[in-house]
Write a structure and sequence with these properties.
With 119 residues, the protein is mainly alpha-helical. The protein has two domains: 64 residues, Arc Repressor Mutant, subunit A; 31 residues. It is 53% helix and 7% strand. The chain is built from five helices and two strands, in the order αααββαα. The protein has a two-stranded antiparallel sheet with strand order 1-2. α1 packs across α3 and α2 packs across α3. 15% of the residues are buried. The mean pLDDT is 87.
Length: 119
């Protein structure tokens, strides 16, 4: 899989977005190994830390898992990132405490500034 950098966002985010696209489209299958950090860094002419950061982002998103000294591999089933699981627990606790859906949505609007897109 070829990674193309456009320069429109941080390099590690571009790498993560490219691999996420390949995974979601099925071009990369469960258990398939991603290029080593060093190999991809050399191909792209970038610092290996940048590739590590991209792989860490993919791992946070639940798309890959890493094995020490083995590399990064495509995860079997798409899992929610841990932060989504944590948010779900907090929202459930707020619901239990009596916060209505409308009140919660008002808080979300306030925090995100009423913008329609993601931040």
């Amino acid at each position: 899989m070829e990674v193309r950098l456009s320069g429109k966002q941080n390099i590690f985010e571009e790498i993560a977005a490219e691999y996420e696209r390949y995974i979601r489209l099925g071009a990369l299958q469960e258990g398939e190994k991603l290029p080593s950090v060093r190999t991809l860094a050399m191909q792209l002419g970038i610092n290996p830390n940048t590739v590590e950061r991209a792989y860490a982002l993919l791992e946070q998103r639940g798309l890959v898992y890493t094995l020490p000294k083995k590399g990064a591999f495509v995860r079997g089933q798409m899992r929610e990132p841990p932060v989504a699981e944590e948010a779900r627990r907090h929202i459930a606790a707020l619901k239990e405490a009596g916060l209505s859906k409308e009140e919660l949505l008002a808080v979300v609007q306030e925090v995100y500034g009423g913008e329609g897109g993601e931040q």
